[in-house]
Amino acid sequence: MPNEDSGNTSPSNAEAQPISKPQVIPSTPQQDEMRKDSKCGPTDQENEISKLERDIKTGEKWLIFINALLLTVNIVIAAIYYGELKEMRKATKATGIAAATAEAQTKAMGEALTLQRELAALERGAAKIEVDGIAVFHVGTKVLVDVKLRNDGKQDARKIFLSGKTEFGESAQEVSFGSFTDFNLTGPDHLPKKGQIPVFVTLNKYIETQKTEGRNLYIWGAIKYTDFRGVEIPDTFCRYIPTTVALNTEEGIAGKGAYFFNPGDCGYPK
Q1: Span 147-166, mean pLDDT?
Q2: What is the 3-state secondary structure (H, E, C) of the chain?
Q3: What is this structure's pTM?
Q4: Range of the domain at 117
Q5: Assigned domain for 80 exists
């Protein structure tokens, strides 16, 4: 007799066999490490950002500190330079004052030496050039003036030069020796000391001007000559002649005009 349970054999066998589990492959150490590194949650990211912000702030602080330090150094350098500049200015000013003082002292010593020489010359007697007279000629509107000089001193005068100018006016202008530049040698250029017979020298060319309005004809001049010491003596003069008197002569030069002895001094014009 056939087995009635033959049709149910498979199921019974199926129930009797255990259920198989899937095989799990173990991970390698490298994978485990990567897994650990990949586990970065939000908290870890916030920590990284905070650290970066702290580093930036620290760098900014150091930059500000360095700039402040550089500014302080520049201020110190500027202060040192300013102090040196002030000292240099003081030194320059002091040098200028010292130079001016030395110049003044040299000038004073020169004046004192000149005075000593003049005193010594007066003791021995010196040359003394004076204006003896002035000759005036006029032709048309042109006026020509000649000056005659004499020596009233006790010593000879040599190398006599004269520079002069003349013009019509109401009052005499003040002039200095330095305002004369065009000096001309007189003829002759030697005046012996004062004697019984006077000797004169005159200019080699006339002083010229034009007829204009004015109460007086003024003649200014500068004289320089060498005395017995070989020292050049400077001197100035100013003389005047009333216009009506100066021109109250016949026109012409040779044999004409008029000679005025010891004309008026500009210090006491009439």
Answers
A1: 88
A2: CCCHHHHHHHHHHHHHCCCCCCCCCCCCHHHHHHHHHCCCCHHHHHHHHHHHHHHHHHHHHHHHHHHHHHHHHHHHHHHHHHHHHHHHHHHHHHHHHHHHHHHHHHHHHHHHHHHHHHHHHHHHCCCCEEEEEEEEEEECCEEEEEEEEEECCCCCEEEEEEEEEEEEECCCCCCCHHHCCCCEEEECCEECCCCCCCCEEEECCCEEEECCCCCEEEEEEEEEEECCCCCEEEEEEEEEEEHHHHCCCCCECCCCCEEEECCEECCCCC
A3: 0.52
A4: 43-124
A5: yes
